[in-house]
Amino acid sequence: MEALPRETIVDVLEKRLREDILAGRHPAGSYLPPERELADGFGVTRTSLKHAFGRLAHAGLLETRHGVGTRVRDFLRLGGADLLPVLVRHSPDWIGEIFEVRRGIGELIVERAAIRATAAQVAELRLLLAAVGDAAGGEPVQLADVEVHRALARATGNRVYVLLTNTLFNAYLPVRGALVGPFEDPWAAHDRLAPVVEAVAAGDQEAARTAAGDYLSATERIMLKGLARSGGRGEGAL
């Protein structure tokens, strides 16, 4: 068995600074203390601190200006959806807001797929749906279910919907392990999703939207219960 990697000093620094920023201890628009002061306070080298700053800048939480200093970005005003996994990791409360967007976008995607899906895409959807029922339960079913939703997004013919679908799934990453409830029984998961696929196959726009709403609401209720039981923990990767 391969040993799990240990946290490095940079990992720990990044996590500590991220928590301080998201908890408001370093407010948006404020400058962090000088590097030397921070490094001495943490008992680390300035090189390690710079690496941590680089990661947080890449995540959209910091910006460094040469000769001026490192400032906390106003991520709610300037940030993008790529920040969602970071925010969920800090506070699972974000999941409720993500689910609200999931419902709205999910219904719209399925409605569009019902209008635009080709015969080949319908055949692919049915194969992917069958794979949900054939999966082993839990994580394999969850992953098979994801592929159905990716295919629905592709069937809209709009690549932005595909990227939005990816973004929403990526947002779940920090708590994915707590969201497996709807997928423990493969055939229950299959039967819950089947009306969505069949409405798209029939080209029935109204039925597709209704089926998507029913599916999204049902799975959301189960996932939120699982998240509550886990206390917001559930590390995993889609």
From TrEMBL:
Keywords: DNA-binding, Transcription, Transcription regulation. PROSITE patterns: HTH_GNTR. InterPro entries: GntR_C, TF_FadR/GntR_C, Tscrpt_reg_HTH_GntR, WH-like_DNA-bd_sf, WH_DNA-bd_sf. Residues 7-75 form the HTH gntR-type domain. Transmembrane segments: none annotated. This is GntR family transcriptional regulator. It comes from Streptomyces mirabilis. The lineage of its organism: Bacteria, Bacillati, Actinomycetota, Actinomycetes, Kitasatosporales.
